[in-house]
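Cont'd.
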Amino acid sequence: MKPTTGFATIDWRGDVLILLDQRKLPVEETYLHCADWQSTAEAITEMVVRGAPAIGITAAYGVVLAARAADGPLEDALAPAFAGLAATRPTAVNLFWALDRMKARLAAVADGPVAEARAALDAEARAIQAEDAVMCTAMGRHGAALLPEGARVLTHCNAGALATGGDGTAVAVIRRAWRDGTLARCYADETRPFLQGARLTAWELDRAGVPVTVITDNMAGWLMAEGGIDAVVVGFDRVVANGDAANKIGTYALAVLCKHHGIPFYFVGPTSSIDPASADGAAIRIERRPDREVTHVGPTRLVPEGVPVLNPAFDVTPAALIDAIVTERGVMRAPYGPAIAAQLADVGPGERRS
Ligand code: MRU
């Protein structure tokens, strides 16, 4: 199916996975071909592809590539691929959700012919991607309904078509509000250090004709104090049972700023990004990424040689700072524990890991 965004973040051709290389955007639109699970795992680690749902979808296709290359019974043969793909990035729960779903599919067909098991895995990965696109549309609809007329919305990182199988989570809300005529402008935090906002959100919204202005991360407080922001809308990598939410580093600071200025703060993500098995945010493993992402921009060194830096890729926003969590199933408000339990109880067995 041709994406409505005009570019394919994840393009499965049946024997090769083609990924839009997000490290090169916006300067170059180039595509990386992955023909085995190892190169697929490397593409996730290196952030050729990134964003919680996109990571899960990519890993599912990595399993399909491993199955195509495997000899003999698949359950044993695929164990290294499942382990290798799971070791790529720790914070977004969609990776583990998608791998669990692929494992469950494999277990259901493992006693049959290998060719049929391969076909079943291929179909499961395609379903994960297709269902994600449908969820994005629903999130866009639910989230856009929260915004006022003439909304000026700040977003952080990239929670768009580059991060999902559809037109995004938070960015689906922004795209939908623009189509509905309620969005005046999107402000995109540049999102140091990997610059997903400046490079990726600005690229995809500009392409879609949505008015977007990039600000550096430390301008958000000033813009709010000036009365320039009506809502902050971001994606999430993992929401846990009590509603605490992990997202790109800097999200927590925005939520605190929103509380101070009385601006609504909304998280948007699919139920596949919810981890009901973790009680609260303290259970979320925060990925530490290479120092070089902080010490350099491209080839240029910014930090003196030998000076230590920190590079946590995510932070956790406590549930108490969140005005609503939007999924494909609707809008949740505090108290989030029961709201999350109720939404997940309603999700069919094929849609979530058991
Ligand atoms: O490190 P990244 O670029 O994978 O981080 C992505 C984010 O933090 C997104 O906001 C999150 O995955 C939600 S996107 C649908």
